[in-house]
Each structure stands twice: as structure tokens, then as C-alpha cells.
Please model this.
Amino acid sequence: MSEAAIADKRDLWFCWWVLPFFYSFFGLIFVLLTRVMPPPSPHKTDAQIATFFHSHTTTIQIGFAILMVVIGGSGILNGFVAYEMKRMSVNPAFAYTYIATLAVGAIPGCLMCAFSFLAATFRPDRNVHIIAMLYDVALLTFVGSLGCFATQYLVLGIAVLLDKNQIFPKWFAYVSFWNVITELLAAPVFVFKKGPFSWNGAISFWEGTVIFVIYLNCFILLLRKAVQSQGATEVVAD
Amino acid sequence: MSSSARTSVVWLALSALTLASWWLRVVHDHGALSASTAATVGVLAVALVKGRLIIREFMEVRSAPVWLGWATDGWLSVVWVTILVMYLV
Amino acid sequence: MAAETSTASRADGRTLPGDINMWVFVLGDMVFFGAYCVIFMFYRTREQDMFLQSQRHLSLATGVINTLFLLTSSRFVALAVQAVRDGKHERATRLVGVGGLFGIAFVALKIHEWYVLSHHGFALSTNDFFMFYFALTAIHVFHVLLGMFVLGLVVRELRRDDLQRTWVVEAGATYWHMVDLIWVLLFAILYVMR
Model:
């Protein structure tokens, strides 16, 4: 490969490298620091919820402060994926839809949870009922914000199936579709406080997360292949 | 046997097995719906046979590459055994 | 793309029906549904009496008829695949159509069943049994509706002279049979086992 061709792709490789860094931060923040994944139980009393926040105040504040700094990474990743989708033979509307659904989804998908948790830990002597409400808002949005993401997975999957340029293999479309089903199965979280369909349940949370992790790992590898496969002379419409 | 005849025979077998589970409960057991290990083991065994027939015949795994046969038999085994063990324990 | 098709013969004469991508989907879906059923069993063993009591409100006859609907539709779809291989595209189209009709019958009866149950006061939040019953049958019906769409794509494939690719019909059939397979499992654990 010529020097010019390699140099042409450095910007894409920069984007790709954001992936493992961003999701590592995501894991560190949501799993280890803020304890949102797996979510604490919806079955707690208001007093227990307040205790949860008191005992994790420092790590919640550090974790979500870091999130505010790194969340921009999702913008880079969405732009990067949209670019790869524009290399497909399908209409660029698919790429724009991908960006739009995730841009909207980021707010209930993680930011509302972050701000609610930060508000809950901001004044430790706040009324426990108000703290409990912030807890509900945080976790209901985090797990229950399924519409935007279901649309994103659907659009990505359809684009992959229709794409004649085979930027991604067709089986990946089906992996994306699995996530549509798991998103739909998160809908009952608004009703159940325990059992498999609560926001920390075996079906609504755990199985969905496992399937998402499979999807993410596939996506990271396939995006790498997509960047590698792009020829130096390939023309991508604006 | 032609392939369409074979398909129809499989369908008849599957239908018969399905009707059998209805007959067993309604006629043989007089509509009983109390816990019964024997009945449940029977139900699961029938479902296993039906499942394998669908996989091997309708889905044509019988004439597919061997790895697919292993994968589908593996699925049948793991799911059915897990369900049975959870029921019995 | 020709590279997608896998109905080329191999040395041992074994062929993969459809294409590998659809099999990835089907096998994955089977694993996930299997997991849902195992989770169902986990909760069932903890509340066996309540599950048994609640199960009494299900109509076994309805379950049987629905099972027969799907088995029959699968038979017609399987026959359609054979017709395509014989080059009889019009016959295949009719067979897929009949298969689809039985699929519609399944959905209609399922909706009727839900209506009757809710009329008697049973809902997703009634108890754990009904929670699983409604959620699992709903996800399954979603797969059936998706299957209707897939069969529609198969019919479109068959009716266009420039397409009529065998592997597309086979892949659609594979998906449809999976829907049938999953129902056989659900029927056993929701309606029949005790």
C-alpha cells in the first residue's frame, strides 16, 4: 500500500481507536464507579436508596464527571459509523438516521442517569423521597430508553442487508436485529419492580446486556475490517 | 419416497404427536392439571422428538454439513436437559 | 451476490440450505429463546403451585390448534422449497401463500386468546405465570409477524423473473421453521407440562 493511501486513512484509524477507549471508559464508569451496571434493585425502600447513594457518593461523582468529559467520544463514533454506512450502496438517509437516533438516544440513554445520580449525591441531607425519585428517573431512563436504540439497530441491520458493497457481512445485520428484540423486552421495566422484567432483571437487563456485548465486539472487529478494506481510490459521496 | 411425500409423513407425525398430548390430558387423564413428573417427562420427550423432526426434516439439517447437526443437537440437549433438571430438582 | 449462496454441492454431497447468515440468525435466536425458557423454569420451580393454578386458565385446545396451524404452514413452506428446486416457481408461490395464510390464522387465534384471557382479568402484571405467558407469546408473535414479512420477500423473489434465487427461498423457509420450532417448545412448557 502506498504512503499516500496509508496517510489517507489515519483519520479513520483515529476514529476506530476511539472505540476501545470509549467503551473501556464506559465500563469503568458504569460498572465500577457509579454502580449503574448491573443496576441496583428497584425493590429498595426510599431509605435504602438514600443509603446506596450515601455509600457511593465519591465514586458516583468521579465516575460521572469523567463521563461528562468523554461523552463526546460517542459523537466521534457515530460520525465514523455513519461514514462507513455512506460507503454502502444504500441511500445516505440510513447513515443520517443512525446519527439522529443515537444523538437523541444519548440523552435518556446515559446522560439523564448521570445527571440524576449527580443531583442525588449533590446534597446528602436532601429528603429521601426526592432522592428515591431521582433514582427511579435515572434507572428507568437508562434501561427503558429503548425506542431510539431499537430504531438504530433496525436501520443499521436493514442497511447491511441491502448493501451491495458488502461493507459489513450480512450476518451482522441479524446480530443488530437481536438487539431490537432485547430493547423491546426492556419495555416491561416500567411495570415490574422485581423479577426478570424489572430494570435489573434476567431478561430486561442481563440477557439484553449479554447480547449487546456480543454485538459490540463484533462491531469493533468489523469496523476494523471495513477501514482496512477501503481502497485508496474508493470514492465516497459527500 | 419422494421428498414431498416425506414432508407430508413428517407433518402427519408431528400433528399426531401434538394431538396425542391433547388426548392424553383431556381423555386419558380426564383433564387433570396437577403436578405429575411422569406426565411432564412425557411432554418434554414428545417435544424433543417434535423439535428434532422439525430441525432435521423441515430445516433439512439431515442433509446439511455435519457441524450444523452437532450444533442443533447440542441446542436440543442443553435446553431440554436444563429444563428437565430444573423441573426435577 | 453469488458468494452468499451455499447450495453449491460439496464433496460429501451435503448442502447448507439458504445461506450461512440466516443460520447465524436462526441459531442465535434459538439460543436466546432457550435462555428465556430456562429463566421461565427458574421462576416456575419457585412457585410451582401458583404456576399450575394459573395454567388452568389456558385453553389447551387453543394451544393445540395453534400448534397445528404452524406445523401445517411449515409443511407448505417446505413443499414450496422443493417446488423451487424443481423450477416450479408459480407452484412455489402458491404454496408459500398458503403457508402464510396459516401463519395469519395463528396470529388471529393468538390475539383472540389474549383477548379472552384479558376479558377474564388476566394481564402481564397478574402474576409471574401470566407475566411469562404474555411476554413469551408476544415475542413469539413478533417473530411470526416478522416471518410473514420474510415470506412476503420470498413471494416477491419468486415472482420476479430476474431473481428467483433458490437460496433466498431456502433462507426464508429456514427462518419460518425456526418460528415453528420455538412454538413447539413454548407450547410444551406453557400449556402442557405439569
User: Anything to note?
Assistant: Chain B has a mean pLDDT of 92.
